[in-house]
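call fold(seq) -> C-alpha cells
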Amino acid sequence: MSELVTGDAVVLDLRPARLPSRALAAAIDLAVVSCVFVLVSVVVGIASVTLDEAAVAAVGVALFLLVLIGGPIAVETLSHGRSLGKLACGLRVVRDDGGPIRFRHALVRGAMGAVEILMTFGVVAAIASLVSARGRRLGDVFAGTLVVRERVAVKRSVAVPPPPPWLVGRFSQLDLSAVPDELWLAVRQYLTRMHQLDPGVGRSMAVRLADELVTRTGIAPPQGIPAAAFLAAVVHERQARDARRVFAGAPGASFAAPAPAGRVAGSTGGTAGPAGSAGSVGSAAPAGLVAPARVAGPGAEEQKGAGDSSAGFAPPG
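ret:
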C-alpha cells in the first residue's frame, strides 16, 4: 500500500485503487453513458428531422460534449467523486491530500479522459495507471487527484484520547449543531494520531482545528487551556451527548449513562463529577495533553474541584 501524506505530515489510511477495479468501474460508467447518449441521440434525431446537415452535425457535436464528457464531470462533481461505476466497485476520487474533489478537479479529469479513454479506447489510461505507483492516469496527475478504495478490511478503531478531568463537563452548554461532520472527522483523526506528528506540526494543527471549532460554535475556550485539550474536551462532550441520546431513560439524571466500548460518558455539570459517577476509574490524563498541574488560569479551579487523583476519569474502553 502506498502511504498518502498531507502537507501537515499526517499519514492517511487510504488505499489507491489499481487498474483492474478502475477498469471495471470505467466500463460500467461507459456503458451507462453510452446508453444515455444513444437514447438522447434518438430523441434529438427525431426532433431534428427538418434541420439541414450542418445543424445536425452541430447538434451531434453538442450531444457528444454534453453527454459523454459533461455528464461524467457533473456526476463526479455532485457525488464528490463517486460515479455509478465507482460506487459499484467501492471506489472514490479524492484529492491528493485526501479531501473531496471539486468542479475543477472533475473538469480536468473529464477533459483528459476524453483523450486518454474515449479517443484511444483506454490504452493511454491503462498504460499510465500501470506505470504510476498509485495507479493514476494522466487525468489524475493533471488534476491532482487519486482514486482510492473505500471498501477495505475493517480495522480495530483507535479510541480518541479523553480530556483531562478538570475539563470534563466544562462545555456542556456548547452548541455543536453547526459543526460539520468533516470537521469532527478531522479533529478525531488528529486526536488519534497526534503522537505520530512532529510536536511543532501537532501544535499548529491543534490550534487551527480549535480555531475552526470556535468559529463554528461562537464561543472561545477559557484562557490557559491548550488547544489539544480543548479539542479532546469538545469531542468528549459530543460523545457524552450521543450516549445520553442512546441511553435516554431516567429524567433529570445528572450524568450520562455508561458509554459503550471506545466511548467515555461525560458529565453534564460545570465541573468534573465524583469518583465512579462517569464510568470506570482511571488515573492519568493522556500523553500529549497538558496535565492539570501545569495549566494556569481558569482550569486551576476545576483542577482543585476534581482533586489530585483524577478519580472518575479513564481512557475509553
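The beta strands are 4-5, 11-12, 15-16, 91-95, 145-149.
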